[in-house]
Target: Glycogen debranching enzyme C-terminal domain-containing protein
Amino acid sequence: MGQFWTWSQWADSIKSCFEKCFWIPNDTQDPEISYNHGAYKDSFGSSAKFTDNQLRPNFLVTMTVLMCIYMHKFSFYSLLQLIPSQRGNIKQAPSLFTPERAWDALQIVKAQLVGPLGIKTLGPNDWAYRGYYDNSNESTDFSLAKGFNYHQGPEWLWLTGYYLRALLYFGRHLARINPKSYGHLANEVLADCQAHLARLDDHLYSSPWRSLPELTNFNGSVRIPFNKNSF
Model:
């Protein structure tokens, strides 16, 4: 018979193992993961092995879901409007993430994955990166044909919200717990979020479709329209 675990035991086990398994230390000497040091792994124990260490934005979802669990009464827009005197109402950072490590990982995302509108689905320093999606591609290059690279670099917009919320939370949290080193982040993250939202707003009103795209290609370039005859 299997061992009985309580929910608390599950939580403690996940907490004790999470960064040990998923965070890539800054001082790692392992050449297979050193090119993404400071970030969080995309997976752990994958059959392909190398995919564990690819720089992808999925950990942004984990950050934000945990934040919502701990801060369920705050919406994104209420976070934007928080004034310094209200910061004491913010609960402790999600305990799976060391705040300083989480912030450093977010800076890696900002430098390598954030596009004008969306978030790259794979780091551009990866050998498998293909940043231009075209589902009408009829070439013999399997990495591109029929839009096979859908998850290999095009910039998805749905991830943008997770990035902005994580940036806003961890930036302000660090500013509160360590104002001497991180106090400047309180206003900087707000400005970053507003700037990105402004770009989305500009695109929304300038688009002939009056909408946002599902994804863009490298650096926000417009993707090739869907070809209904490509199947």
Q: What stands out?
A: Strands lie at 119-120, 155-156, 215-216.
